[in-house]
Structure formats: structure tokens, C-alpha cells
Amino acid sequence: MKEKSGEVPNGRADEKVRPIDLANPPDTALSLRRDFLKMGILGLSGIISTMALYPLIKLAKAKTPPRPLKFVDALLISEMPEVGVKKIALYETPGGRAYARVFIKRSPDGRLTALSAVCSHLGCIVNYDRLKDRFVCPCHGGIYDGNGKNIAGPPPAPLKNLPVRISGAYIQVGIRKPPV
Ligand code: FES
């Protein structure tokens, strides 16, 4: 049997298929299309501005000069043991917040070294294990040997070596101080 136009096969006889008038689409279809276009334009302009700004951001970062190295009094020479390690906190003002924590080590040959106490993994402050001559991080169990070389656990790099010198009665450590 032949189907009459406007009737839905296997459907109810009174259900008619309404063709979409593409020249005058219904409101919802039109607004959906407009929203889609707006989002596309916004996304594209976002990508273009990011691409345009990227070299400028990189240039600005490259031009930021490193903070100058300053030698600060860390410890009286008389307070340093003949052989061993001292943990020092450096303060801008007495009783203020420490801006750096360092270890000063005197080896049996008399050589002085200074190491930052900041773990190279996530920045916790490490402790010195006198019995095993090594540094241990309390946060994730990172271990450094007596020279600050990372030997076990998550730390990806050694403890930072800092310049050290004697000035008058003091052992001084060279650090890049945070701005105050
Ligand atoms: S912060 Fe030191 S091991 Fe993770």
C-alpha cells in the first residue's frame, strides 16, 4: 500500500512531520547557533591573545635579575665545634621569623662548608643525624649523605651548597636574601 505524504509510517495518523524552515529557523535553534558561534569566537580570541602574550611573559621573566648574594654573620667562630655540624637559623631582626636555615660543617681537615637546610623535594627543613653523619628529611624520608648529596628517597637533587667565609670573629654565609 502506498503511504500518503504527511503521514508517519508506523505512527499515528494525526502525527505530521513538520519540515524545518531553514530561512526562518525556530528561536531555540537560532539562539543555540548564536551561542555556539559566540563561544567559538571567544575561545579563538583567548588562544590568539595567549599566543601573543607568551613571548612578552617569557621576556619579562628572563629580565628579572637574581637577587644579589649577601654575606651575613651566621655564627661566632668560637661557637663552632672543632669537627661537626651546627644548624643555624638566620633572622632579619632578633625574635623575627627566620628567612633561612643552614648547616655549617667543619670537616676533620678544618674545611668549612655551608648547606641550605631546605629539602630539594618539597622544601621541608631537614635534620642532621650526628651518629650516621647524614641529613634526613622528616616529611617523606629523603636522605642526604654528610656532604648533602641526595642518596635515598624522593629528593631529586643535593642540598644547596652555600658560599662560606670567615670575617672577623664570624663565620659568614652567602645567601640571596628574600626582599624585606
Ligand atoms: S620534602 Fe623532603 S623528602 Fe619530601
CATH superfamily of the largest domain: Rieske [2Fe-2S] iron-sulphur domain
Annotation field: number of helices: 1
Tally of structural domains: 2
> Uncertain regions: pLDDT < 50 for 5+ in a row?
1-8
Descriptive notes:
This protein is α+β, with helices and mostly antiparallel strands and 180 residues long. It folds into two domains: 1-64, no CATH class; 70-175, Rieske [2Fe-2S] iron-sulphur domain (Rieske Iron-sulfur Protein). The chain is 21% helix and 29% strand. It has one helix and eleven strands. The protein has a four-stranded antiparallel beta sheet, with no helix packed on it. A four-stranded antiparallel beta sheet has the order 5-6-7-8, with no helix packed on it. A hairpin with a 4-residue loop joins β7 and β8. The chain is elongated. Residues 1-8 have low confidence and may be disordered. FE2/S2 (inorganic) cluster (FES) binds at residues 119, 121-122, 124, 137, 139-140, 142, 153-155.
Fold blueprint:
Layout: H1 27-63, E1 70-76, E2 84-91, E3 98-106, E4 112-116, E5 127-129, E6 134-136, E7 143-145, E8 150-152, E9 161-162, E10 164-167, E11 170-175
Antiparallel strand pairs: 1-11, 2-3, 3-4, 4-9, 5-6, 6-7, 7-8, 10-11
FE2/S2 (inorganic) cluster binds at residues 119, 121-122, 124, 137, 139-140, 142, 153-155.
In short:
The chain is of the alpha+beta class. The protein is built from one helix and eleven strands; from the N terminus they run αβββββββββββ.
Observed structural traits:
180 residues, alpha+beta, Rieske Iron-sulfur Protein, disordered N terminus, binds FE2/S2 (inorganic) cluster
